Amino acid sequence: MRLFGTAGIRGSVHSKITPELALNVGKAIGTYIDTGTVVVGRDARTSSVMLESALVSGLLSTGVDVIRIGLVPTPMLAWATNKLGNAGVMITASHNPPGDNGIKVFNEKGIEFFLEQEKELENIIFSESYKMSSWDNIGDVKDLDLKNNYIKEILKYVDSQTNLKVLLDMGNGAGSLITPYLLREMGAKVITLNSQLDGYFPGRKSEPRYENIAYLSNLVKELGVDLAIAQDGDADRIAVFDEKGNYIEEDTLIALFARLYAQEHNGGNIVVSINTSFRIDKVVEEEGGRVYRVPLGQLHDGIKRYNAIFASEPWKFIHPKFGLWIDSFVTIGLLLKIITQEGKPLSEIIKDIPKYYLIKKNVKCPEEIKYEVVEKVKERLQDLLRDQVEEVITISGIRLNLKDGSWVLVRPSGTEPKIRVVVEGITEKRKEELFSLAHNLVNKFVSELSCRP
């Protein structure tokens, strides 16, 4: 893929995600769908209005109509596309730095374009085989505000009231327009933090990793809330702290929802990304279900292939009964419902989910060598761990599942010049041992290949 990564097209506004590119993507989408309506939304980044304008111009030039729904979170754009469009486009770089932006494309069901569809768009762009309409057949634009409609549909689906006290850290992102209002409609007592929209993300880094939101732990205890929830810039991700101020590991949260769906369906297929824990497999298999793993950014392909009842990757959740897109707002609503119905705090609800020891670190790596680095690490890791390996998965970098239940994943980032190293050990010592091995290998090959003449 020359443009699309694991989550649409992303990069620097000055070097990659330019108005020219947005114009061409608009023309390519209009050419691809031929006729109909495209729903367009944008996040709060400083460059989003500029890119939206260029993209809409490209769409209109092909004769398709456009519904602009303005500044919205990505899940709402997907929902609106499912309701009103033949395709949808979101201008966002999700949790990337403020100088970046991006373009995500959705089909008429609100699903991010499949790989084959993204390839077709790339072919149209690079061959410049655009369909251009005559002056008297240019598309029309309509502006709609659908936020209240979206909130009402989520409330209907979740179907629960609560009196929980919730701290929300909106990270200056688009979730500010939905999450506090949704939870107050459910009856929750809401305290907001970083809820002013700001494309510079002054409150914190947009990605809701623990190191970026660790301060919420003390705030939970000081404010006496039942839980804290953080979202990223386009609000498709969430991170959670329980009532004691403990950060809930992403895989534990996935396991909680996976177990819930497996219980409801007396089994069923669950799809998760390649970088997720065996704790998910354990709870799902106990309920008679089965877990399938897919590359990052391909949950939708997995749902289609395995007829999944639930799908997730860290921080991101898809609830197929509501819609086939990542939707943090449905996730938040259902999480509050679970806590309310169980009648006990979140820390107690997740107590019986197995505990393993997981670490994730990124290594900076020039874009032009990151795939070569991963290939070299792949060969060396398999050689060093060959007597311990039970399964080798190569759908996204390399994941080695080991005989003792531990695993190692090394993969190239699909959105940034980085290599991801993820290790889970059955003990803290095992985790550190395996991580040191993998991390050192990545650094070694990055250094060697960067110095190559």
Automatic annotation (TrEMBL):
It is an enzyme of class 5 (isomerase). GO terms for molecular function: magnesium ion binding; phosphoglucosamine mutase activity; phosphomannomutase activity. Residues 2-129, 149-245, 250-356 form the Alpha-D-phosphohexomutase alpha/beta/alpha domain. This is Phosphopentomutase. SUPFAM superfamilies: Phosphoglucomutase, C-terminal domain (SSF55957), Phosphoglucomutase, first 3 domains (SSF53738). PANTHER family: PHOSPHOMANNOMUTASE. Belongs to the phosphohexose mutase family. One of its GO terms (biological process) is carbohydrate metabolic process. It holds the Pfam family PGM_PMM_I. PROSITE patterns: PGM_PMM (PS00710). It comes from the Archaea. Keywords: Isomerase, Magnesium, Metal-binding, Phosphoprotein. Residues 362-434 form the Alpha-D-phosphohexomutase C-terminal domain. Its EC number is 5.4.2.8. Its cofactor is Mg(2+).
